[in-house]
Fold this sequence. Notes:
Shape of chain B: globular
CATH architecture of chain A: Orthogonal Bundle
Strand content of chain A: under 5%
Strand content of chain B: under 5%
Largest sheet of chain B: none
Shape of chain A: globular
Order of helices and strands of chain A: HHHHHHHHHHHH
CATH class of the largest domain in chain B: Mainly Alpha
Number of helices of chain B: 12
Distance between the termini of chain A: 34 Å
Oligomer: heterodimer
Order of helices and strands of chain B: HHHHHHHHHHHH
Number of strands of chain B: 0
Amino acid sequence: MTLVTGTGRPAKRAPRAGPGGRRPFGGYGAWFLVLPALIPILVLSVGPLLYGILLAFTDAQSGRTASAQWIGTLNFQDLLHDRLFWESFRIGLVWAVGVTVPQFLLALGLALLLNQELRLRWLARALAIVPWAMPEVVVGIMWRLVYNPDAGVLNETLRDLGLGDGRDWLSGLATALPAVIVVGVWAGMPQTTVALLAGLQNTPRELHEAAAMDGAGAWRRFRTVTWPALRPIALAITALNLIWNFNSFALVYVLTNGGPGGRTRLPMLFAYEEAFRYGQFGYAAAMGCVMVALISVLLAVFLVGRLRGGDES
Amino acid sequence: MRTSKSARAGQYAALLAYLAFLALPFLWLLSTAFKPPRELGSLHPTWIPRNPTLDNFRQAFDEQPLLHAAFNSLLAAASAALIAVLLATPMAYVMARHRSLLGRAATGWVVVSQAFPFVLVIIPLFLVLKNLRLIDSVFGLVMVYVVWSLPFALWMLVGYVRAVPPELEEAAAVDGAGRLRTLVFVTAPLLAPGIVATALFAFITAWNEFFFALVLLKTPEKQTLPVVLTHFIGAEGVADLGPLAAAAFLATLPSLVVFAVIQRRITGGMTAGAVKA
C-alpha cells in the first residue's frame, strides 16, 4: 500500500457553478457516480471493520458448527494476561521504531543527495525505486540469499575482510531481529525518499540562495530553510511508516516466519497464527482491536508532541 | 551555489554507498539465479558465476507450477486493476468537483483505511466471503483487491481530476453538450493518462500482494505467484537456492517493467495533492 502523504489536501476549490448556476453533476447524478465504488467499500471494507470489532466480543472459532456466543470482554481479559502476546507486541514496537527511524534518516540523506546536481543521479533515482516495485516475498527471498550462512554474500565478504567466519544471521537469537530490521529499512526506503524529495523540490530556491549569500553554512541552511518546509511531509510520512511497519507481515513471514524462538514474531504473525492456524477468530479479532487502539494512542502522542515542539521553536 | 571540493567528494562517496546498499542485494539474487549447484554449495561464492547456467530456471518450472501461478496472478491483478479504475474514476470525479459531506467522509476513509491492520479486516472478510462461497476463488480475491486498491486509486485520480480545468466542461455545456456527453468526450480523454497510470499501479500492488492471497486461496492450482514462491522454502527453512532465486527473479520482472513505465507519473501524482498544503 502506498499512499505517501496523508496530510493537508488543499481544500480551496469550492463547487463551481456552471453557466446559469448549473453544476455538471448535482444531486442524484452525483449519487449515480459514487454508488458503484461506495457499495464495495461499505460491504468489503467498512462492514468487515465493524464486524471485526464485534467479533472481538465473541468466542467465534473456525470450523465450528454452533454459532458464536457473546462473551463480553473475556477475550480482552485473557489478552491482558497473555505474556506471549505482549512479548510479540514489544517486538512489534522495536521493529516498527527500529525500521522507521533509520528509514527516515537514510531516506532524508538520499533525498538531499538526489536534490543536488550530481552525476550518476539518474542511476540512483532508478535504483531507489527498485525495492518499491519488488514483491515483498521476493525481497524476503533475496535477503535470505544474502544472509545464507554458506552461499550468502554477507558471510563471504566478512571472511574476505578477515572478520571471522560469519554466522547464521536469521536463526541466531541475537541477530535475527536486527537482520530483519535491515531488510525492512531497505524495502521501505523508496517511498520515504520519493516523498521527501518531492518536499525538497518544493522548498524555495531563492531562500536558499539568500541564506548562502548571508554566509549561512550548509547545516544552518538546512535547519532554517529546508527543514521548516519539509516538516509537514516528514511528519506525515513518518507517522504512516510507523503504522505500515507495525502492520507488516510478508517480509518477516518469508525471512524467519517469526523464529528463532519467537524472537521476530511480529503482532501480525501472531494474530495470523491465532486466527488461521488455531482457528481462534474471536481472540485474534480482540488482538487486532488492541493493536489498533494502542497504535492510535502512541501515534497521537507522537504527533501532538511533534506539532507542539514545532510551535515552540 | 558554491560547494567545496571536499564536500563534493563526500557527496559522491555517500551516493556510491547508497547505490551499493540498494543494488547489491538484487545483483546477488541475479548471480545466484545463474549459478550451477556446485558453485552454490561451495564455501567461497563469487559475484560472477564461473559457469553460468540456465538450469535453475528449467528446474524452477519443473518443481512448482510457475506458469499456472503466473496466469492466476495476471488474471487477479488485471481484473482488479480494471474494476478498481472503473469504480474509482466516477467517484473521484465527484470528490474533486463537489465539496460535500460524502466527499469528506470518503477522504477520511482513504486516510483511515491506511491505518487499520489487515488482521482486523481479514477475519470478518474471510467469514463474509465464506458465506458468499467466495473463499478459495480468484473472484473473491479480485473483490478484495479492488476494495484494497480503491483508497490509493481515489487519491491519485482526485489529483488528476483537479488538474482538468472546470472551464473546459463549462464551455462544452455552453455549446449544448449534455452532462454525460461532456464527461465522456471532454473530461475522460484528458484524464486518460492518469487513469492508465493508476490502473497500472493497482496492477503492480495486486501482482505483488501476499497476505490476502495466502489466507483466501487454499487449492494449490488457484494460488498466485507470491504464494507459490514461498513453497520453494521447505518446512525447515531449507531451500533449493538456485531455482528459488530464478523463480523470484522472474516473478519480479513484470512489476519492474510496469513500474519503469509509470514511475514519473506515480511519484508526481502521489505528491501533487499533498505538497502544496
